Every structure is written in structure tokens, then in C-alpha cells.
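Lab notebook, bench 4. Continuing the backlog of folding jobs that were queued last week. Each job is logged with the same field layout so the records can be merged later without manual cleanup. Today's entry covers Polysaccharide lyase family 1 protein, a 359-residue chain. Filled in by technician R.K.

JOB TYPE: sequence-to-structure
TARGET: Polysaccharide lyase family 1 protein
LENGTH: 359
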Amino acid sequence: MTQLRSKRLPRPGPGSRPGLGKALVTVTALVASLGLGAITPAKAATDAVTGGTAAPRWTDKAHGFASLDGGTKGGAGGKVVTVTTQADLERYAAAEEPYIIRVAGTIEAEPFGANVVVSSNKTIIGVGTAGELVQGEFNLKPGTHNVIIRNLTIRDSYVEGNWDCKDTDFDGIQMDTVHHVWVDHNRFSRICDGQLDVRKDSEYVTVSYNRFENNNKTFGIGWTENVKTQITIDHNWFSGTKQRNPSADNCAYAHLYNNYLTAQADPGDPVWTYGNWSRGKTKMVIENSYYKDVQHPYQADTTAELVQRGSILKNTGGRHDAWGAAFDPRDLYKYELHPAAAVPALVKKFSGPQAPVGR
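JOB STATUS: finished
OUTPUT FIELD FOLLOWS
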């Protein structure tokens, strides 16, 4: 899994503006079509890349890096089961055969911080908006592949009074050296360590339309000297989170777009509060995101590269690093890029668990 099989798309001709496509879609029209309320015509912008054709918002098809090199289909073709207990969730998630596992209601893991091991070829999806894993972790071991985790709330493994959590490893989702994983439309809240840790040499990962809330160490990528990971991070809402939003270390490609970062937590903790960090030898591209009340919204090591374009910053301070050429995501896959001005309303409405996803 070390070779990225890129899909090269046609390049714009002379005199054209990159990524606009043929159709211009204003923020006003976009917001109206999504039922998000009014935005003034003064904030008009374009819906780039898609040529004005919006993708179905509740699609079951992975996009971004998780769509490449054979794609990510999860448990498609396997049996569909509905679980309401920890024992059944653990049994089906760890099974050798493919499963689509529907989580109905709240499952409170025992003992506190317990791992639910997820093997290859699985879809785990919350029913309606009520599917929850409480005080537990989804754990993907090395070699695991083709996994989808969607439409769940993963919460409350936080240990009261242990803000830094250095003596625990209670993540929301942890994966080590996996490939083809899609984490979509989940809500993470009050996790003692990382809410989402994409570790070691993990590849072909997409993280989309999630809510990351009320946490210290939010979303880490890396813990490896190898530069292999390819990851797409789009339409996520980071609210009341302190650091690692995300922190991306030694990623071959990290594509962040249409994310919303706001209201960072900083309860007297001397550790740096920050938004996106391109670390090690990471090549990072940030597009059309929205930062509000964020300290150090995006930064890069001198050994890393970071390209930022089209984002909106409100009341931000500290580092706003951008250097190097990084890469062009349009050389690798198609994607729907919304105007930055529409991101707060769009992400607030459509991130986290949604009834149409868990139908």
C-alpha cells in the first residue's frame, strides 16, 4: 500500500481560473438550496470543482482518498445485523466475514475504556440519530482494511480531573497501519485521549462531516517516521477542542477543506492551543475553511509544506504559516468544494449523526 494510484484530471486551459468549472454558484443560491437561511449576495462565491452539480449529501459512497485504489465499501455484500448490546457489537465487529452492523440506541462499554475491535470489511452505522458508544473505543489493528464507521456518537471516556490523559489510552477511534477507512457523520465528545487517532502507516483515509467537541487532544495523525499516509478531512466541525485539530505528522498528502473551527478550549492549560498543524514532512493543502476565535489557526514545521487558499479567518491570532507547493488535490480525485462563507451554516446543519444516514 505504498504506491498512490492517482487519477489525473484535466487541467484548466490558458486564462481560466483553476477549479471553477463551467458553472458559478453563489453562496446565496447554495444556502437557499440547503435550507440554511439567507446570506447576502455580497458574499457570492463559486462552487468549485463540481461544475455546479452537487453530490447527494447522504451518499453511501466514500469520497476523497478513501475512494482511491479500489475504494472503501465496508461491509457491503455482507449480512445486515442490528445490535443493542456490547457483546453483540464486539462479536460482529470482530468477525472474519463482512457485516453491516446497525447500532440501535446507547451501548455503554464495560469496563470503562473497553476496546471494541473492528476487523476488515465492516460497516458500523448508527440507527437514526440515537446510536452511541459510551466510555468505549473502536480499535482497528494493523492490517485492517475496508472499514466504514458512520452516524454514531462516541462519548464520555474522559476521566474527571485528568485533562492531559497521559496515563490512559482511551481514544474514540484508534487505528494503526490500516488502509481504506471512512469515518463519516459521527459526533465525538469528552474522550480522555484522542477522539480520533490515525496512527502509524495508515493509508487511504477520509474523515468527513464529523463533530469534534469538548476535548483536549482531538485528532492526531502520524506517530511514524515513514511518509505514507494519504488523508482527506472535509466538512468537520471542531468546537471546544484545544489541540490536534488535526495534527498531521509525516503525511504524504493531507487535504483539508470546508472545515469549521471555532471556540477552542483553553482551561489554563500551558500546552499550546492550535488548529491545523502540518508536521514533519507532511504536505498539507487547506481550502475554503472557516476559522473563528482560533489561536494559531494553521501552522507548519520548517520541514513540512502547507498551502492555504480561500479560507475565512475571524478573530484569529498567532501563526498563519504557508510555504511550499504541497500538491494539487485535483490531480488525485474530484471533490465538492463549497465557498468558505457557507461553511458555518453548512457544517452546523449537516455534520454529526443524521437521520437520513442512519435510515
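OBSERVATION: Residues 1-26, 37-56 have pLDDT under 50 and may be disordered.
SIGNED: R.K.
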